[in-house]
Backbone:
């Protein structure tokens, strides 16, 4: 399938804040695109990301997403030049405006965790503050040696607990490591990120996108329903309180999955030595 690249609708500026690319069948790349600011977060970038994720939700052909940054940064956190005002917000009161900004940022994080298809973050440089939260919200993180991770919030007089990181990090790297990173605000280099589980693997910078696309391709080759249910159940299991409850959730999901016809098709394809034609591929 030929590449199909376009911009997520995010305003009238000459350079869109988020680019949407289709490099291969079933794979969508979302590229944060403010390279001169290391893809720092402002209202335009968040609007563009929310629009792009909404587009993925509507695209029944999409099987996996790769999230990355233009230039030498992934996302350097909040833009110190100013955030702006969330789209559609017109309340002049300071408290209401600041709370709207907080909800706007939080929506970008949860839009990734709740997306029906998996997200692979290709972290090509600094991921700080909100940028680290976006990377943590992905299902898989592949990073280059230039990648760094910094919670950052505590360094500017705020609580280190922001944008879901106080929930995500302990589950990802353990409570002790998470507390240290959030209390000190120190920067984690790529090698350490891989060692502590913050990154799934570290690859050469010139191989980063290819590796992320390869991983996305492995996901896209599986049953669309099976992948969707795997992501949904895995995220739900982070909130389930017991093995019994977790297994009951799995049991119901597995029975539901037998009704797609994909199990029968997988067995037939194996016997016939061909690639399966999944039920979702017929849509």
Residues:
């Amino acid at each position: 399938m030929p590449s199909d690249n376009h911009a997520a609708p995010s305003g009238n500026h000459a350079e869109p804040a988020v680019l949407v690319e289709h490099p291969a069948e079933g794979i969508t790349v979302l590229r944060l695109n403010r390279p001169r600011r290391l893809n720092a977060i402002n209202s335009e970038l968040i609007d563009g990301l929310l629009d792009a994720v909404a587009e993925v939700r509507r695209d029944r052909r999409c099987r996996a997403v790769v999230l990355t940054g233009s230039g030498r940064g992934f996302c350097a956190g909040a833009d110190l030049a100013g955030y702006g005002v969330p789209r559609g917000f017109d309340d002049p009161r300071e408290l209401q405006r600041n709370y709207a900004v907080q909800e706007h940022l939080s929506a970008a994080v949860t839009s990734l965790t709740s997306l029906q298809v998996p997200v692979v973050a290709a972290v090509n440089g600094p991921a700080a503050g909100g940028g680290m939260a976006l990377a943590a919200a992905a299902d898989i993180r592949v990073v280059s040696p230039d990648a760094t991770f910094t919670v950052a919030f505590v360094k500017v007089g705020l609580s280190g607990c922001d944008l879901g990181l106080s929930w995500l990090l302990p589950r990802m790297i353990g409570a002790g490591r998470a507390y240290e990173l959030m209390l000190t605000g120190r920067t984690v280099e790529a090698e350490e990120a891989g060692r502590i589980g913050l990154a799934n693997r570290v690859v050469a910078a010139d191989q980063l996108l290819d590796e992320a696309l390869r991983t996305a391709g492995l996901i896209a080759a599986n049953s669309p329903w099976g992948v969707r249910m795997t992501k949904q159940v895995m995220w739900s299991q982070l909130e389930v309180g017991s093995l019994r409850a977790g297994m009951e959730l799995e049991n119901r999901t597995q029975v539901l999955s037998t009704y797609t016809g994909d199990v029968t098709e997988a067995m037939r394809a194996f016997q016939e030595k061909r690639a399966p034609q999944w039920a979702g591929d017929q849509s």
